[in-house]
Design brief:
The protein has eight helices and no strands. It is mainly α. Helix 1 packs across helix 4 and helix 2 runs antiparallel to helix 7. It is globular and about 50 Å long.
């Protein structure tokens, strides 16, 4: 199987976890504290993965300056794009309560939420594809982080979509489309950078890492804190240690 196709399948797997979360939210009544706890756990997993796998490896392979510049650029681009979408109704796209506006309350919010979900998912997919550049392999810690975090993301966001009156066609259309876009992003990331210099790969990798960290703080942590309160830090720590353990065992 060609590497570009393998990259696409890994990206599709990561994005598919969002569809699983959406299905759980649509067909089951999952208590919001449980969703928030898993969200906090997933946030810890992502933070560990981008620290030990993405940023550390990018710095080692491509140098400190490209890694630092890429990390800052990724965070800045994500925050700017997220601010624009937030004004159009996507601010609470990962919230499971009644925070998401309906289309009647804010016209165009459905499109903004869909674009926001796409914004959240693309960086994760890109790093899965980049793991195969230069004959490498997808990191078990990064893959686990993406899957573990995407299930509660899809669950929480879809619960909020359902509560705001959005249809099953909209919900599963959004997450199905993002799963496909994730596979495509991983493929494009691999194809575009398979012959790139280590510094370029490091820069792009940390752009994605910076965007992921900004996404965790802006969209995942608020939902986790609202329902897990004082336990948020502990659950996030457990997620961090889990990803750290996977990284050490995998290495």
């Amino acid at each position: 199987m060609p590497p570009w196709l393998i990259a696409g399948l890994w990206g599709l797997l990561g994005g598919g976890a969002l569809v699983i979360g959406a299905a759980l939210a649509w067909f089951l009544r999952v208590p919001r504290p449980v969703v928030a706890a898993v969200m906090a756990f997933g946030a810890g997993v992502l933070i560990a993965a981008l620290s030990f796998e993405l940023v550390a490896d990018a710095t080692e392979d491509g140098g400190l300056l490209p890694a630092v510049l890429g990390f800052l650029a990724g965070a800045l681009v994500y925050v700017a794009a997220n601010a624009v979408l937030a004004r159009r109704g996507a601010r609470h796209r990962k919230r499971s309560g009644g925070q998401q506006p309906s289309e009647g309350e804010q016209g165009g919010s459905g499109t903004a939420i869909a674009l926001g979900a796409l914004l959240d998912g693309i960086p994760e997919s890109v790093v899965l594809g980049l793991g195969l550049v230069g004959g490498g392999a997808v990191s078990p810690a990064v893959l686990a982080a993406v899957v573990i975090s995407n299930v509660p993301e899809g669950l929480s966001s879809s619960a909020g979509m359902k509560q705001s009156g959005r249809s099953a066609r909209y919900v599963f259309g959004v997450w199905g489309g993002i799963a496909l876009a994730s596979g495509l992003s991983a493929t494009v990331g691999y194809l575009a950078l398979q012959t790139a210099s280590p510094a370029t790969v490091a820069f792009i990798t940390t752009v994605a890492a910076g965007a992921i960290l900004a996404m965790v703080v802006d969209t995942m942590v608020p939902e986790a804190v609202e329902r897990t309160h004082l336990l948020t830090g502990l659950v996030t720590t457990l997620g961090f240690l889990t990803a750290f353990g996977v990284d050490r065992l995998g290495g």
